[in-house]
Amino acid sequence: MRQFVRPAIAALSIACLAVSLAAVTTDSALAQAKQQMAPAPQGAPPAVKQMALTEKQVQGVLAAQKDMDAITDKLPDNVKPDAKVTAQLDAVAKKNGFASYDQYNDVLDNISLVLGGFDPASKKYVGAEAVIKAQIAEVQADKKMSPKDKKEALADLNESLKTPAPVVENKGNIDLVGKYYDKLSEALGGQQQ
User: Is 91 in contact with 144 (CB distance < 8 Å)?
Assistant: First the structure.
């Protein structure tokens, strides 16, 4: 009888283990799916669709920037452009080598993500967190800034530290943006972060 019971118990144990592992895996997959589908917290910028940048794309952004600014500077803040303005933006994007204004924006977002991690003094990539910490130190050391402005600036910078910037997935983007750092920071100076 023992010869039949032991294998049956072993088989039952393995079956129970398999079922419990499947349940854990399913629960984990469901939790991960829910997390991915959850909306971004209010006030948080949408996630950057990261891509490997090309030199042609960076040059296209630089070439398009003045025309893009001429159109977007006329728009009220936080207002989606109408069809006429969108057509103008698409035309400028296409003229500079992009399939659409959306593709131009994706490239611009990737450039801005990398630029946010460059130390303006050394022009070296140090990461967004290090840049923010350096900015905090600058604000704290600034004797000319009013206490009210200093308090607001520090609050904003400390809030930025709480929501870390995404890690740059395509490390080649760092070298490429570094190559064009001066031109990009001049053209996009007011748009970073």
Answer: no
The amino acid sitting at 17 is: L
3-state secondary structure of 178: helix
pLDDT (average), residues 25-51: 48
61-100 tens-digit pLDDT: 999 999 999 998 888 888 888 899 999 999 999 999 999 9
DSSP state of 97: T
User: Which residues touch 60 (CB under 8 Å, ≥6 apart)?
Assistant: 96, 97, 98, 104, 107
* Greatest pairwise CA separation for the chain in angstroms: 91
DSSP-assigned letters across all residues of 100-149: SHHHHHHHHHHHHHHHTTEETTTTEE--HHHHHHHHHHHHHH-SSS-HHH
- The enclosing H or E element of 68 equals helix 55-72
What is the residue-averaged pLDDT of the chain? 77
Say what the pTM is: 0.69
What single-letter DSSP state applies at residue 190?
A: G
Structure tokens given for 25: 């895996």
Q: Who's near 100: CB < 8 A, 6+ residues apart?
A: 90, 93, 94
